[in-house]
Each structure stands twice: as C-alpha cells, then as structure tokens.
Amino acid sequence: MITLGIETSCDETAAAVVRDGRVLSSEISSSVHLHARYGGVVPEIASRFHTEFILSVTRQALADAHCGIKDIDLVAVTCKPGLPGSLLVGRAFADALSFAGKIPLIEVDHLQAHIMSCFLGARGKNRDVTLAGDVPIFPFVGMVISGGHTSMYICKSLKDFTLIGRTLDDAVGEAFDKVAKILGLGYPGGPVVEERAANFTNGKEINFSRALLGDASNLDFSFSGIKTAVMYYWRDSAKTEAEKDKICFSFQEAVLDIIEEKVIRAVRFAEKTEKLAVGGGVVNNEMLRRRLASRCRRENIELCLAPRKFCSDNAAMVAVLGESLFEDGKCNTENTEKN
Ligand code: KG4
Ligand code: ZN
Q1: What pLDDT is attached to residue 244?
Q2: Is residue 128 in some structural domain?
Q3: Helices H, strands E: what count in the chain?
Q4: Model-level pTM?
Q5: Residue to mutate (ligand 1; options 109, 284, 317; most atoms within 8 A of CB)
Q6: Domain range for residue 203?
Q7: 132 within some domain
Q8: Which of 23, 121, 216, 275 counts the highest number of beta carbons within 10 A?
C-alpha cells in the first residue's frame, strides 16, 4: 500500500510518501524564517505559506518517491490540533486530491503522529517493533514534547490513547523559545539554548525551581514560572555572554530534571508496561536524549525516541499513522473507489 501524508498544522508545509510503513520520501518546507523577527509563529503568515508551497512540496515528495498521484492508495492528513487556518490548507488540499483521484482519505491526530514517529523505519520483518497488523507494540507510555504540547498518554492501541499528564501552561518548546527571546538569542529557541548551555562548562549553576515535582503522584507540568524566573534573573544580571550561557545551562537542567522525573513516574503509573516512546521537536535536544536513555537503562524501561529527522513536524509520521489506522479499519471518507 502506498500512502501520501500531508502535514500543515503549524509552520512546516510537509508531504511524504510511505509504502507499507517504509518512508519513500519526506519533503518539508518551513516558514520558520518568516516568523523569526516576531519571536513566535504568526498564524496568518503560516497559512499563507502553506497555500503557496503545498503543491510544490507534494510534487517533490511524489517525485522523490518515483510515484505519480495514480500510484497513491491512501491520503492521510493532519486534522488536529494546530492553527485553524494552517490545518484548513492541508485538509482542503488533501480533500481535493482524494475527491479528484477517488482515493480514500484518512484524518490523523498530530500528537498521536508525533508519538508514532518513534517507530518510523522500525516496522516489518526482521525489526523488533511493528505498527498495526502483526505483532503489536502496544501498550506503552507515549510522550509529546514540542512547541505546542507537553503531554503524556497511556497508549493501548491505535484507537486508545489516554491522556495522563499535560502542561498546565507553557509547553517545553515554547519555554525554550521564550527564554531565547528574553536573552535575545533568536527564534526558534531550542537549538540555540542547547548550544549556549553547552558553553557553560564550569561554575555554579542557577537553582531555578522545578515546578510540580514535590507531589510524587502529580503527572502534570508547569513551565511559566521558570520562564518568569529567567526573566528576572536576566534583568538583574551583569548581562554578559557568559551569563547567557549560565542561564541557558541552568534552565535546560531544570527542565530536563522535570521531564526525566515525570516520564518515569508516568511509566510506573501505567503499571502494565515498561515501554516508553518520546517524540516532538524538543526530542532533537541531545542532552534530553542522553538523559532519558541513561535513566531508562537504569530503570529497565525500553525507550524508543523519535529518530532525529522525524522529531520536528513532518508528513512521514502522518502517512505511517494514517496507513496503520486504515489497515485497522478506520477510514472516514466515501472516496474509496480508486481510479
Ligand atoms: O514538534 P515541533 O517541530 O513543532 C510543534 O509541533 O510544536 O517542535 C518545535 C519546538 C520549538 O519550540 C523548538 O524550539 C523546539 O521544538 N526545539 C528544541 C530543540 N530543537 C527544536 N528544544 C530544545 N532543544 C532542541 N535542540
Ligand atoms: Zn508538532
């Protein structure tokens, strides 16, 4: 089966072609450079960008996969959550392809796709995990750490994701972006904060508070307090480059302490699983990857991190999840009679 995935929920216009769970192509065009001077995504700019680039991005994904639209058996598109105008562009485009080509269309949840991106490229014979179909990977605890979400789920099947913890205010990626903005480091903040943190090699770190860690049963997150603490610290500091490095290091340490602790709690809370899958843009962070890997080793938890090239928004994760849902019998249009 060949599936075309379409993703336009935020500032990445993406299309991908997947055959039986294997990624044949993944094309992404990002409008991040247009948002940089605003320090965050401007919805109107994002949706205009999608309108302009969705066709060329899709053509490129098909060409890279050596496919034509007639070869496509299924169109999978992100339907939620996301910026309404941006989602609308992808949905309308996918609808048009589905209608014109009489190709079945399937809607995919973006957060579920981030979690399932952990298993990209790990499907089928001679691999240790599979998606829907033969040997199930379920149950496991899934976590999304991105610019818009910090959420943990017990994942029992493709249709059964139960939310067990979430941020009460800012998402982790958003906190990285805001700290970078406070320090004048540009946008997006994650990569540059990580880079500046690595410059801090000696000295005493700043003890930013770790919110909601006290109660051992609490699975929620809060990152707005640490963002404000960074703001006040910077305001009263000597404002040197070395201070920026120290703030980035201390902020990152605090955030990673929280994530590490909560995700282990979530696996213990889930009881019937020792498996953890973590996806989303923040999973690009090398320190986060290392810390989760070593903690899970110590705790005997099987960890599956999204491959780096599929951490940020992409359409391969949408296509793979769409294909699995389709095989599982979920299809939501009448355009099922293929040309
Ligand atoms: O998943 P994603 O591409 O888009 C959303 O669905 O939100 O995540 C983007 C977020 C941004 O906030 C960005 O700053 C963060 O991921 N990010 C990072 C790193 N790379 C990207 N955060 C921390 N460390 C990184 N290396
Ligand atoms: Zn995302």
Answers
A1: 98
A2: no
A3: 10, 10
A4: 0.92
A5: 284
A6: 163-306
A7: no
A8: 23
